[in-house]
Amino acid sequence: MTRRRVAAVLVVACLTAACRPVKPGDPVRGLSKAERDRFARGKVVFDSVFKPETGLGPLFNAVACGECHEEPVAGGSGDEVEVHAAAFKGGVCDPLVGEGGPVVQQDATPALKQALGIDKEPVPPSATAQAGRSSPVVFGRGLLDAIPEAAILAYADPNDQNGDGISGRPNRFFDGRLGRFGRKGLVPTLDEFNAGAFPIEMGITNPAVRTEETVGGKPIPAGVDPVPEPEINQEALDLTNTFVRLLAIPTPAKHGKQEKRGSAVFSEIGCAACHIPLLRTGDNPVAALRNKEVAAYTDLLLHDMGPDLADICLGLATPSEFRTEPLIDLRDAKRFLHDGRAATPEQAVELHGGEGSAARDRFKALPAADHAALVAFLKSL
Amino acid sequence: MRLWTRVAVLTAILLCPTGVAAAQRDVPYVYQGTVQSVKGSAVDLITGVGHALRLVRLRTLPSTEIATPDGEAALSALKPGDVVRADCRKTDAGLVVDKIEIKRPKS
Q: Is the Cβ pair B53, A172 closer than 8 Å?
């Protein structure tokens, strides 16, 4: 084989690899061997099943990250719906931390059951609302983490000065930093979201969160969780962060004529005013996340979704405000919306209220062909 | 020479326990969070990591400095919802705060 032919074969092989669709659970393209290795090791931690003797609980929602983020692969969605609670009084949000909020764990270890006679955390008595929270996919979250703050804030229009009926505004964490993760957009960074998820979801303390959750605001009884803090070390936390950070957004199904029309309708009827089709990452220590286009269909801002969807407040988010949900891997989703109340994408659109009302009404009024095209587009993502 | 050695040893004996105790008493802590409540001299602050939120109770002293973007203020200027940075010390009596800086709310 001549050198020229070898080069041609290599070019074709590279192009073929680059064109191969990214499947759910794949890492982002362009990683170094060392990064791929840490991604693989991080998946092992993500799938690790904790037991009481390895730190689980004493209160928890799941025994592993992968218990809730499992469909169709690790990092995907789950059918679990957890319970959150908060109080909203006089325009002020209280996450009820002193009563065990805002996440109310739904399971307890045998030792805690024996000590207190409870099999889950009680709902805070001062709660004015409870919320169901389904488990979303975490694909593409590293890319969302890499979106510059300025790019997010550029879409904010809290007073709807442009008069389009859409008034996105940022949530902020309790220390004032811009939030972007979670259904209410409270959490500023992916690492913090993950570090916080270990104790609230599994009762696993770590170097970033060294104290256990309370039981309804009261300390856990002595002796029910004898594993010393932190229950995982920095390396395990870092590996988990790496795995989640590097999960790619799966390539949408191939767009035929109908999906292409649906994509156009998506913009025409106003869905794209909040579900911004493309964002761009900024500078990033990981080259594969640096200056990349991110087709996540979100602006990472809070929008008023109307009284029918309203549940709890969190941070600056009022009960009816939710962060625009990224539209990622919808074709594998079994349930839709923040609490999984919708069984289909059509139902999810039809349940939009508030700032989404106008787009919803235009969706309902679409000619049958355009309606079907939009649904086909959503199901292709 | 012997006199100076005695003086040095005596000085070390007298100073060391005080220094160690002071170091144990005054462990500095910095918290950034949102004021949950102000009741008397107690300030409850919401902090945390991700959704793992924690409530931190701070005890103010008459000497606690309250700083706002417009200058110094009284404790009564502190309101629930304020985003603050609190410079604290852990003492035998709990967490005492030397300075609370109110950050201007961001929209």
A: no
What is chain B's percent helix, strand, coil content, to nearest 5? 25, 55, 20
Assign residue A150 a region: left if phi > 0, alpha if psi is -120 to 50, beta otherwise? alpha
pLDDT, tens digit, 9 for 90 and up, residues A164-214: 999 999 999 999 999 999 999 999 999 999 999 999 999 999 999 999 999
Does A374 lie at the interface with B, CB-CB under 8 angstroms?
A: no
CATH of the domain at B37: 2.40.50.140
Asked whether the beta carbons of residue B53 and residue A95 sit closer than 8 angstroms, the reply is yes
ipTM: 0.93
Domain count, chain B: 1
Contact pairs from chain A to chain B, CB under 8 Å: 73
Residue B87 lies in a domain: yes
- Domain chopping of chain A, boundaries: 33-138+188-246
Q: Which residues of A touch B106 (CB under 8 A)?
A: 172, 176
Q: Does A176 reach chain B within 8 Å, measured CB to CB? A: yes
Structural domain for B33, as ranges = 29-103
Q: Is residue B90 in some structural domain?
A: yes
User: Where does B26-64 have alpha helices with state H?
Assistant: none
| Residue A251 CA: distances (Å) to CA of A144, A254, A282, B44 | 16, 8, 21, 47
Nearest CA in chain B to A188: B50
Q: Which residues contact A124 (CB under 8 A, 6 or more apart)?
A: A85, A87, A96, A99, A100, A101, A104, A216, A217
Residue B7 lies in a domain: no
Name every chain A residue with its beta carbon within 8 A of the beta carbon of B34.
174-175
B47 touches chain A (CB under 8 A): yes
